[in-house]
Amino acid sequence: MLMLQDNSKMENNNSLVAEVKEKANLTNSEELSLEESQKILNLIEEGEIDEKHIKALAKDSPKFSTKFIESMTELVHTFPTLVEKVGDVNQEALDKIDHINHTVKTLKDLASNIQSDEGRIKIAELIFQLSKDYNETLKEINANTNNTWSKIGGTIASAFVIGLAIIFQGFGGDST
Fold this sequence. Notes:
Keywords: Membrane, Transmembrane, Transmembrane helix. By secondary structure, the chain is mainly alpha-helical. The chain has one domain (2-168). Helices cover 81% and strands 0% of the residues. The protein has seven helices and no strands. It has helices at residues 2-24, 34-45, 51-60, 62-86, 91-113, 117-144, 147-168. The radius of gyration is 17 Å and the shape is globular. The protein starts with a helix and ends in an 8-residue tail after the last helix. 30% of the residues are buried.
């Protein structure tokens, strides 16, 4: 019975990986480019893929998590520059992004040192709550600014959800 469940989980994982690779036109999920990462973020934002897909990729390809974290970090670091170029600098938003950067770094450090599934789950819960709070803040900011915030903010919010999946999977490590 346990062997059947394991096979079923593996088949489900493989089908989720295949689905993401097809939708994002990925050939090698371990050598992810910034453009491919952006495509995955867009698919998440559009509701085409969700957390279970990202978890499946992280489990299937050990280097996927590292490459995706690198892309997320690059996107988050470019956010303040994009905001300034738009000419609508909102200090509250920049402060929130700074807070998020520090929080993600802290959770990343914690997650890389935690060995237990329970610890990873607790970190996942924390990042999920942070993501919800962040999305609510973006909604408030969007209500007071223009559509550019919505587009930029959606990308960062998507990156947070993906960060949750990657942290939950132990940054590419096998949590089984």
